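Researcher: For the annotation table, I need structure tokens for MFS transporter. Please keep the output clean. Sequence:
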Amino acid sequence: MPLALLALAVSAFGIGTTEFVMMGLLPHVADDLGTSVPTAGYLVSAYAIGVVLGAPLLTGLGSRVPRKKMLLLLMALFTIGNLASALAPDFGWLVAGRLLAGLPHGAFFGVGAVVAARLVSEGRQARAVATMFLGLTVANIVGVPAATLLGQHLGWRATFLVVAAIGLAAMAALARLVPHIPVEAHQDVRRELRALGNRQVILGLLTAVFGFAGVFAVYSYLSAMTTKAMGFGESSVTLVLALFGIGMTLGALAAGPLTDRALRPTLYGSLGALAVVLVAFPFTVHVQWAALTMVVLLGAVGFMTTTPLQMLVMNKAKDAPTLASASNHSAFNLANAGGAWLGGVAIAAGWGWTSPAFVGAVLAVAGLAIAATAGFLDRGEGKASRVVAAHAAGAAPSSARPAAHAARPALEDGTVTRDEPEAAWPSAGSGPSS
């Protein structure tokens, strides 16, 4: 794998640390700023809303900016947002700082996914994207537990100062390792917006919103569940968060090759397994070893959904891979915000600390239903496309038939009719020299 993927993974590590560390710090932030844990949960939602707003906005504004420069600008904004969070004088300013830190998240991963795919040959693109996301999952093994421990001993502000320092290190890695990748000649905001109207892209984004919300309905309150439902002491919160991160990493490692091999089956299987784990979670939470096992499984099956969803929207919006990829992260973080809010509603209603798991299971089933509907419609479109192509090939002169056959896998709007990754982006061997 190219070293540039390491720079992307380091950046993802920093983003993952700041995104997920708030789950471990919620009780401390709530105590320090004089608010309740469910209200402090708005800090999770604030970051997610920043991602939702920033992904299409910043991607559109930077559509003509060279990829490497865009990555550096986005990481600089990320660093400023975390510094603002560390210096926030009250809860309102901290909400604003979290929103600012979230603005570059989706755009960074949108651009980063396209860059990762262009750095490798066709057939390895899902693995390259998964390698970038590996930094996100490793953050939950090392970054989030360490940052939580730091926050417990030195205060939550110290955590965000360290994350800002990680942002600076990531900028240095990007500047040193990522090659110059010019913007494609056909890159145009209006063209990308039109491609986002593809029905399969819309259904893919909706799958992410509902399916992934199931993960965050539980994960947002995992630190509180650790002490109030599982019976562990506060010192064990970092261990539980690390186990979730291990599960995330295992899921991400498995998702890359599985997605390259069979995209939709990987998506269906991970969403179905997520629903099962969420239903079982409340029944195992009072047996500590079983609860810890379920935490690992939740991280694994939850994050196995990310790579197939990322590749699906990039494949189906092949004329708009950057905006589609960024919009997918908007969808993921809309899921984060919605899952955190719905989980908080369940807790505030007095249904118990494990009630968000049942809320999450319903959301995961809804995501699976949307994904299955999209797959059914895609197969129907593929059959119709092949019938039209076969008719055209039969009616064409024999000299024209190879061309008709070559056009067979795509619909009139350019939607691919199979789930394997397409050569939607120039590979390292076919793209512009860098």
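Researcher: And a one-line annotation?
Model: The radius of gyration is 22 Å.
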